[in-house]
Amino acid sequence: QVQLVESGGGLVQAGGSLRLSCAASGRTFSSYAMGWFRQAPGKEREFVAVISRSGGSTYYADSVKGRFTISRDNAKNTVYLQMNSLKPEDTAVYYCAAAASASAYYTRRQADFGSWGQGTQVTVSS
């Protein structure tokens, strides 16, 4: 398994931007599909975005499409989530996750992601 550490969360006004980073340990980062998920207060954790092993393919939840961008740098063992035009409803704890199975890119099921970070809080004020 890979160890994941998120950073970059914080408090931002509506309409603002944040960039989350997720640093992974190990030398096999490029063999993992990577995803971002979030959990708002009182709600279940939900899918946000996923990126393929090579970084050539991405997929987004409808709620963030056009505002968020997922990317990765395999040389730095890091995946990013650029969040623009933030809304109060984006307030949540954001988690990055790694999947050893390439199929996780297509299923986007949390159960298919075997490694998770500790989460980073994003708060968007209105």
Biggest beta-sheet profile: 7 strands, mixed
Determine the mean pLDDT.
96
Q: How many strand elements? A: 11
Supply the number of helical segments: 1
Helix percent band = under 10%
Find the structural class using helix and strand composition. Answer: mainly beta
From the spread of the alpha carbons, the general shape counts as globular
Low-confidence stretches: none
Q: What is the H/E string?
A: EEEEEEEEEHEE
What would you report as the Rg, rounded to the nearest angstrom? Answer: 13 Å
Strand content: over 45%
> End-to-end distance, in Å?
39 Å
Task: Give an account of the 3D structure.
It contains 1 helix and 11 strands. It has one helix at residues 104-107; strands at 4-7, 10-13, 18-24, 33-39, 46-51, 58-60, 68-73, 78-83, 92-99, 115-116, 120-125. Strands 2, 4, 5, 6, 9, 10 and 11 form a 7-stranded mixed beta sheet that branches. Strands 1-3-8-7 form a 4-stranded antiparallel beta sheet, with no helix packed on it. A hairpin with a 6-residue loop joins strand 5 and strand 6 (58-60). The mean pLDDT is 96.
Write the layout of secondary structure elements.
Blueprint: E1 4-7, E2 10-13, E3 18-24, E4 33-39, E5 46-51, E6 58-60, E7 68-73, E8 78-83, E9 92-99, H1 104-107, E10 115-116, E11 120-125
Parallel strand pairs: 2-11
Antiparallel strand pairs: 1-3, 3-8, 4-5, 4-9, 5-6, 7-8, 9-10, 9-11
